[in-house]
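Narrative summary of target 7.
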Amino acid sequence: MNADSISLQGVTPLGTGTSRACYPHPNDPFLCIKIPLDDRTSQKRQSRELRYYKRLKRSKVSMRHISQYHGSIITDKGEGYVYDRIIDFDGVPSRDLNHHLQNEEGLQKILIHKINELGKTLESGEILFHDLNASNVFCQKIAENNYQLIIIDGLGDASFFKFIHYFKMIRKRTIRRRWKRVVNRFSRYYPWIKPGMIK
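Modeled conformation, tokenized:
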């Protein structure tokens, strides 16, 4: 192993998705390392996401709802990509939105407000997403009774037609249509979310 590389030997993944495994950074508790699975599709998805991160940075939109990217690193499991690890203000790792929607009845009103806030930020910032669900959004406790939703996966556009990046009207219409699908999914999986609660 290269002297400058990081060993993930014996490190338990935080989670494994369809295209990447995510590990806690062994040298920094506030970072994680995403390793694409060893196939062409996973590598392609990672490259597409990084291009979109750069596009967002250039556009100077608000990134407060997005896990920040900190560059690539060599590990003993291949090239990894370093992102924020979402941690609550008290040092406890944040849980995904799915966990809170299923288990935190006392937070329901707050969560609905935060989901609506996220939707407005995505639309106003014209931030594209393609695989947004409650497992790809983390609910970070930033103070007592104060939360922020952070997207950790599913950003960018996976469609073949790239003109969506260059035409504002098409982009806005696409974001509204995709957000409506997200809202419908919430209503289907969490029966306590009634029509009209999320817009």
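Residues 95-189 form one domain.
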